[in-house]
C-alpha cells in the first residue's frame, strides 16, 4: 500500500491568500472592461449605459434609471424620439425628447429638445452633440 506522504510532493506549493485575492480582483476588473467594450461595439455608442440624473423626463424616466443606448446611423432622428446628448463644457449627459428637427442640409441638422417634465424648451442642439 502506498503511503499518503508520497502524493504530497505532487501538490502545488502553498499559494499566498493575497495573491489569490489580487488575481480575483484583476479578473473581475478585466471582465467588467470586456463587457463594457463589448457593449460599445454592439450598440455603436461611446457610452452605452447612462444614468438619468434629473427628473426632467418624468414620468417616462425617473432619476436613477439606467438607459441602454444605441447609435443606429441608418435610422435618422425624428420628432418624438428620445435623445441623449452632451453640451460643450458639461460632462453630464442630457436626456430629452426631440420637439422639432431643423435640417438646413444633410450636414447641418439641429434638434429642438425638451424634457417631458420641463416647462422650458432647450435651445437647438447640433447633431454632432447627440450621443444616442
TrEMBL record:
It catalyses: Cleavage of hydrophobic, N-terminal signal or leader sequences from secreted and periplasmic proteins. It comes from Heligmosomoides polygyrus. Keywords: Endoplasmic reticulum, Hydrolase, Membrane, Protease, Signal-anchor, Transmembrane, Transmembrane helix. GO terms for biological process: signal peptide processing. It is a single-pass type II membrane protein. This is Signal peptidase complex catalytic subunit SEC11. PROSITE patterns: SPASE_I_1. Residues 36-102 form the Peptidase S24/S26A/S26B/S26C domain. One of its GO terms (cellular component) is signal peptidase complex. The keyword Lipid metabolism does not apply.
